[in-house]
Amino acid sequence: MATPHAVSMKVRNIHKGFGAFKALDGISLDIAAGELVCLLGPSGCGKTTLLRCIAGLEKQDNGTIVIGSRDVSDLPPQARDYGIVFQSYALFPNLSVEQNIGYGLNGNSRATIKARVTQMLELVGLAGSEKKYPGQLSGGQQQRVALARALAPAPSLLLLDEPMSALDARVREHLCGELRELQKRLGITTLMVTHNQDEAMLMADRIAVINQGRVEQYASAHDIYRSPATPFVAEFVGQGNWLPFERSLDGHAQVGGLHVRLPVRLPGESRGRLFCRPESVVVNPPVHEDNLFSAHLHELTFLGNRCRLRFELDALPGHSLLAEVEPDAMPRLTGADMWVALPPRSLQVFV
Amino acid sequence: MDAETPVSAGSQARLNPQLKDTLASNGVIADRLFIKGGQWLLLALLLLTVVFPLAAMLWRGIAGDASQGGGMQAAITLVSSANFRWLLGNSLKVSLTVALIVVPLAYAFAYALQRTCIRAKPLWRGISLLPLLAPSMLPGIALIYLFGNQGVLRGLLSDNIYGFWGIVIGQAIYTFPHALMVLLSALALADARLFDAASSMGASPWRAFRSITWSGSRQGVFAALCLVFTLCITDFGVPVVVGGDYQVLALEAYKAVVGQQQFGRGALIGMVLLLPALLSFAVDLWLRRRQRDAMGGRAQVYHPRPSRGRDLAFLCTTALICLALLGVFGMAIYSSLVKFWPYNLSLSLDHYAFSELPGGWLAYRNSLVLAGCSALFGSLVIFTGAYLIEKTRQTALTQLLRLLSFVPMAVPGLVFGLGYVFFFNQPNNPLSGLYGTLTLLVLCTIAHFFTTAQMTAAAALRQLDGEYEAAALSLKVPLVRHFFRVTLPICLPALLDIIRYLFVSAMTTVSAAIFLYSPDSVLAAVAVLNMDDAGNVGGAAAMSTLILLTSAGVSLLLAGVSRGLLRRSQAWRQPTPGL
Amino acid sequence: MFKRTALAAGLLAACAFHAQANTELTVYTALEVEQLKAYKEAFEKQNPDIEIKWVRDSTGIVTAKLLAEKERPQADAVWGLAGSSLAILKQQGMLEAYAPANLDKIGSNYRDAANPPSWVGMDVWAATICFNTVEAEKQGLPKPTKWEDLTNPVYKDKIVMPNPASSGTGYLDVSAWLQTFGEAQGWAYMDKLHANIGQYTHSGSKPCKLAAAGEFPIGISFEYPAVQLKRKGAPLDIVLPKEGLGWEIEATGIIKGTAHLAAAKKLADFSASREAMDLYKANFAVLAQPGIAERFQELPADYEQRLIKNDFNWASENRDKILAEWRKRYDGKSEPLPQ
Questions:
Q1: Which range marks the domain in which residue B555 is found?
Q2: CA separation, residue B106 to residues B109, B177, B264, B305 (Å)
Q3: pLDDT tens-place string over residues A73-97
Q4: Inter-CA distances, A230 with A24, A215, A233, Å
Q5: What CATH code is assigned to C125-246+315-330?
Q6: Segments in B33-81 forming alpha helices (H)
Q7: Helix, strand, or coil here: C171?
Q8: What subunits touch chain C, counting only 3 or more CB pairs under 8 A?
Q9: Which portions of chain B are predicted below pLDDT 70?
């Protein structure tokens, strides 16, 4: 739902090193106008560095950054056109909410500023809080004020640096939804940094999974989860089971003593790993499935809306695997012995 | 809010789109001027007021004119002369004795304030600050009236007060608050969990003290010892008044430069006096790096529990020390009111009739101007400087500035004075016109007390979120504007602290001023020395008392302003709980 | 803060303007602090377009300062410095010879012998012992009548005298003893005296003030503070030792190369004039112009006769040597020199 003010953003081949340490190693991204893209990755992967380079708070060693049609690669922060919300919100404690939000609106008439501030407060759902001070607000309220302040000058780009990390879990999920809705309504191009995959999955149009300064995969949440491009993405997002195989022949892989049917044919004698999501594992299937193996249950954990089983394939001792089943499937389990099926279509092959 | 409507098209809130770009480009230029220009200006200032004078002194000493006692040959002669060794021995003996007396007393006092439950702590704390508010001559003058040949308590001493013990007692009083401040911060925070662990393991209080308190405050004790030692060996005021026969190095420097115009000799002595400060500074830095932070992230603050015996003992100690301080200062004030000691003890304000002397009240007025200008200009320069160092992009320049800003801490006032004489009293120096003026005294004072003030400012600035500047930039607000709108107001308490520190220091300092004043720019503290020298001890006591009262008055005033300020900004300084 | 800057700037401007309207004369002096105001006012009343800026310190300090500034003199004139010091300056070629009006009235031994003279005397000050009677009684001390008496061990640590390196009074004492007793005997005398000295002070008047306050019962000083303090009611006896009193001339000279020569000449004229003599006579019993001085009650009638025969040339020529010897022998006990 792009608006006339939304802009696209292109990041090309950004390199940034701190001494000997390479934080960004040739990152390129395209963000469409009005899109919300998450930069997801573990601590130290470079996602915040990338955000700060885009904001102009760090200077990249080489590469270009284009916002809309402007090449902003060498411009100072004040000359780029964006709003940013920091992890700590960085609200100015000695200024009221009103003054904070109006901070970037200098040069306009007082009436304009006042009207704009009121508008922004309504937008984030904090109407009437003009005279309060940041110290008097809760975490969630502070985040909304920070957002209002960033959006008040009507920037063409919104940058969010781990906006939810300072909030507790309950508030977080609620705010994720609100933030997403707000972003959609405004249609503002947004780039968000987070290490929390739940947030990324909840909010993003596309997710860029970043590891050691490189983009491992840049796709929608669905694609990332269902078809991880690299083992890192597979492991980072969600849970997974790994089955290493030594040989593959004719559409089957030799995993220990097991003969596992693969979804694709592999060339010649390959070795690699099979990846399978826990929820794809079928426990005690009522009907015959491919790749049905006997297994041994070690631990059963009740997680509310599902159960997690930790088990071992009899033919693959010492190799702990996970399965997640709906509580309805529980009655099928009787005792520690069980049968598990690893449907070929749910297997991913990494060589 | 209509989903289809872009927010910025609201009728009342139509923002000016071109404004953004104009603001951005103006802001960039202003910021560049502010930051880059400010940093280079600060560098120039530090070089001019700290580095060059020191270099001038080193030059005079090592490469200087032999006729004035400088040069390598003169250095060797000086160091090997018996007279020099005698002076050095005297200085060392005095300084070590004072350090060994003062630090344990200050430790006990600090322990009493921080780790016991004695009553009236603010009172003891306040009294302990008394020596800071007056020049170092005041304890000396009081000692004469107390223990001199006509002193009230003369009978207590077998020998007269002039000499070694006079200097030791006088300097002990003068350096006490300095040692106390260091030890107060060393003993400030303790982890309650350690004490709980110790008591649950059955350790005696003494054992707990040794293993927890002492090991945590060791570095502070060493720092205090070094500080007291350095202050004493470079002190001028006390030996002048009560030294008697006993000569020390600090005075020799003065004699050489002012008495005999032997600049080279003075410079060499200045270099010798610089050594203890540099040494203790270096060792302190090394120790600081080795000591881990006493309070880890999860530590709980230790609140001492009442213990009758311990509290009573410490209360007595504290009260005795405070009594001694009050006695000394009370004596000084009393003696300024006595008409003709010891034969006419009637009270009068005769000694305060400074208008009879040439220059009259000029010395006091000059001191007020000096203190006021140093406090106001100095605090702004130092605070802005700290901002430019801490809150901007770190470059080689900021690292250099940070390094230079530590130098004044290692340089005693006396050495500053010498350096300024050698640098600014040169005929070839274009700035030599400043010599003898109040302006130069202001510069010297700000430079001398730079480091402590700057560290206070830096500490306050570090408390601010590191992203404030980034937020301001993203909102296209120039850093200059941001500095005045957000940074300064939040740090106002620290700024007031710095103002008070600079004011009181300027009122009471004498070691540097004694070299740099002229008849037009004579200061109150210098006038005290002059009057004592001329035998007008009553007048000296009166002027010292005046300095004391002024410093105390201004300190109280600023404390009041600070409190009022804090109360007014309570809304945003203290978050309301329960939200 | 800006108000203060404006105020300071305004003050500075006012001062600068004020200074431009008058000629400012930098005058180095060793006059007693209490005398400066009266002398300055008297001169400026006669010469309203000239303003005196005093630079005051003890004799030794001022002399050292002047010598150090030889290449670039800061002083315009000297009003009230020891004759022996001025003799040194003359010998260094630093003085402008000038015969002030009224020179013919000045006694011939109270001025530089040359014509025109490089320096002209104002008054004479002489050694005096200030003896605190109350303290002496308390401590059972006999009253000294001769310099020799002061070496009596009963006075151990009870005497203060000025340091000759910094104080003109101190130097005149040493010079007098060396001249009266001869060199060998003189140093022997000072050795014995040194054992009784409690402190050497920086200024010449301080020993008398200390004696007046009873801090030390005996102070070797000069007659001006002795008389002033006695008048104020201090329990002092003024003792003039029988062997004779060392003395020094307080004199005035013009520094060569001064930019304000005309004004400096006016100062020299005033210093030697009758009006000035009237000023000095309040403070000193012996003046450079004979016949004007009035008898001080506190001093005996034959005061002037008690002055020794003084060879100023010898005193100034040997000053460095004498001071070096003195320092070598006794400098362990000097009071730390401030100012």
A1: 22-55+355-570
A2: 5, 8, 38, 21
A3: 988 888 888 999 999 889 998 899 9
A4: 18, 10, 5
A5: 3.40.190.10
A6: 38-46, 52-63, 71-80
A7: helix
A8: B
A9: 1-27, 64-70, 290-299, 356-360, 570-571, 573-579
Question: What pLDDT band is residue A332 in, cutting at 50, 70 and 90?
Answer: low
> What's chain A's length in residues?
351
Task: Look up the CATH number of the domain holding residue B123.
Answer: 1.10.3720.10
Cα–Cα nearest to C25, from C187, C241, C268, C305: C268
Find residue C52's DSSP bridge partners.
C25
Q: What CA–CA distance (Å, rounded) separates C252 from C269?
A: 10
CA–CA separation, C129 and C169 (whole Å)? 12
Relative to beta strand C218-222, strand C159-162 is parallel
Report the C-alpha gap between C307 and A1 in whole angstroms. 114
Token couple for B493: 């308490």
Residues B34 and B128 in one domain: no
Interface test with B, best of C4, C43, C66, C339 (most B CBs within 10 A): C339
Task: List, in sequence order, every residue forming a beta bridge with A20; answer none if it has no partner.
Answer: none
C-alpha dist (Å) from residue A134 to A117, A119, B194: 15, 19, 36
Residue B457 to residues A67, A153, B186, B460, B466, Cα–Cα distance (Å): 39, 32, 20, 5, 15
Confirm if B93 and B101 have CB atoms less than 8 A apart. no
- Does C129 have pLDDT greater than 90? yes
Beta partners for residue A322, in sequence order: A310
3-state secondary structure of B340: strand
Q: Say how far apart CA A44 and CA A23 lie, in whole Å.
A: 8
User: A242 versus B432: which is more confidently predicted?
Assistant: A242
Neighbour tally for B350: CB within 10 Å = 16
- Coil/strand/helix, residue C178: helix
Which residue of B lies nearest to C56 if distances are taken between CA atoms? B519
Pairing between strand A307-313 and A247-249?
unpaired
List the 54-93 stretch of C: residues with Cβ below 8 A of B: 54-56, 60-61, 64-65, 67-68, 72
Count CB-CB contacts under 10 A for residue B573: 16
B521 DSSP assignment = G
Q: Rounded to a whole number, what is the distance in angstroms from the first to the last CA of chain B?
A: 28
Say if residues A97 and A135 touch (Cβ distance below 8 Å).
no
Cβ-defined contact of B245 to C199 (cutoff 8 Å)? yes
A33 neighbors A2 (Cβ within 8 angstroms): yes
Taking the C-alpha atoms of residue B444 and residue A259, their distance in angstroms, rounded to an integer, is 86
Which segments of C57-147 are extended strands (E)? 77-82, 95-96, 119-132
In a domain, B249, yes or no: yes
Residue C4: its chain B contacts at CB < 8 A? 372-373, 376
Do you know the residue count of chain C? 339
Instruction: List the structure tokens of A42.
Output: 């573990």
C217's torsion region: left (phi>0), alpha (psi -120 to 50) or beta?
alpha
Structure tokens at A330: 């529980």
Which of B86, B150, B254 is closest, CB to CB, to C337? Answer: B254
- Chain A hits for B19, Cβ within 8 Å: 107-108
The 10s digit of each residue's pLDDT in C213-230 is 888 999 999 988 999 888
CA dihedral (A108, A110, A112, A115) positive or negative: positive
* β-sheet bridge partners, residue C239: C129
Q: Do domains C2-123+248-305 and C125-246+315-330 have the same CATH topology?
A: yes
Mean pLDDT of chain B: 84
The ipTM estimated for the assembled molecules is: 0.82
Q: Answer yes or no: are the C-beta atoms of A6 and A37 closer than 8 Å.
A: no
Nearest alpha carbon to residue B483 among A193, A123, C186, A92: A92
Which of B86, B259, B537 is nearest residue C337 as measured by Cβ atoms? Answer: B259
Enumerate the domain spans of chain C: 2-123+248-305, 125-246+315-330
B477 contacts in chain A (CB < 8 Å): 103-104, 106
